[in-house]
Amino acid sequence: MKNNSKYWIVTDLDGTLMDEDYDITPAKKTLKILAELNIPVIPCTSKTASEVRHFRKENALTDPFIVENGAAVYGCYEQNSSEWELILGKSYSELKTILFNISKKVDFHLTPLNDLSKNQIFDLTGLSDQGITRALDRCWSVPFLNPPDDIFENVKFICDFYNVHVFKGNRMSHLLSSESHKGKAVNKLKVYLQNNDVKIIALGDSQNDLPLLEYADISIVIPGKNGPNKYLQNGIDNGSFRLANAPHAEGWANSVQDIIKDFMDL
User: Fold this and answer.
1) CATH code, domain with 39
2) Could you read off the pLDDT of 92-120 as tens digits, one per residue?
3) Is residue 240 part of a domain?
4) Do strands 65-67 and 72-76 pair parallel, antiparallel, or not at all (unpaired)?
5) What Å distances lie between residue 108 and 113, 124, 144, CA to CA?
């Protein structure tokens, strides 16, 4: 990736670029256009590095990527294919201990994804055996089954004591260090690549995307089939966030193409 890029497309994957079946077909033409224009596409996701490496290979993406909700950033050196790494988070083992302690304080069992059987994970995610193996390759965050809303609010309140925070995705919640979230990860990447003036176009669909959307220069909320996530509604209402006109890859492609057109008109 060229360090002097004027714009970065920084995008969530699940529920944003992908639908519930992990399909991105309606966005493939737009991804090809972005590649022709040399506009980087940077995945910024709750997925693991193993999952995103696989996704990038399938879709011919070569730009850096942000994983585990902003807990780590990866990219490849231009001189060779070796990978560099920026770590913002606490280790998985440390976070899992913290999750256990929070469970006791809220008197509710918070179940980590990695503690489920493969059949349970398949029922939750629809992933193949290989996909499940990649999803369980966690280093810097702990995904856990979404608790009821009142329990989730109690968990958020307790997190400060442990210097962690929690974000709710569509399928799971995620515990990670207070030093890491998607917005902080994008900033760290800008500093690392010495491109502080780049404009960030961010796309997301759920509460764990809020730090990214708040950090970006242009922020686009991708709705689900039943409308936008309630945690993002305030940003839409006050005009901070744009709302895409369709769910998932279709809304993603339409919004990105509108922005590209705006660039061409400048």
Assistant:
1) 3.40.50.1000
2) 999 999 999 999 999 999 999 999 999 99
3) yes
4) antiparallel
5) 16, 20, 12
| pTM higher than 0.85 | yes
102, 159 Cβ separation under 8 angstroms: yes
> Are residues 194 and 218 both part of a single domain?
yes
Tens-place pLDDT, residues 153-199: 999 999 999 999 998 887 899 999 999 999 999 999 999 999 999 99
Using an 8 Å Cβ cutoff, are 169 and 205 in contact?
no
User: Which secondary structure element, helix H or strand E, spans residue 49, and what is its range?
Assistant: helix 49-58
Last residue of a domain, one of 142, 177, 212: 177
**In terms of residue numbers, what domain contains 123?**
92-177
Are 229 and 16 in contact, with CB atoms under 8 Å apart? no
Q: Which residues contact 29 (CB under 8 A, 6 or more apart)?
A: 253
Domain boundary among 112, 145, 177: 177
Residues 12 and 135 in one domain: no
> Distance between the two ends of the chain, CA-based, in angstroms?
23
CA distances from 92 to 96, 106, 113, 157, 173 (A): 6, 21, 12, 21, 15
DSSP letters spanning 52-107: HHHHHHHTT--S-EEEGGGTEEEEE-SSSS-EEEEE-S--HHHHHHHHHHHHHHHT
Residue 186 CA to residue 191 CA, distance in Å, equals: 9
What CATH number is associated with residue 135? 3.30.980.20
CB 49 within 8 A of CB 122: no
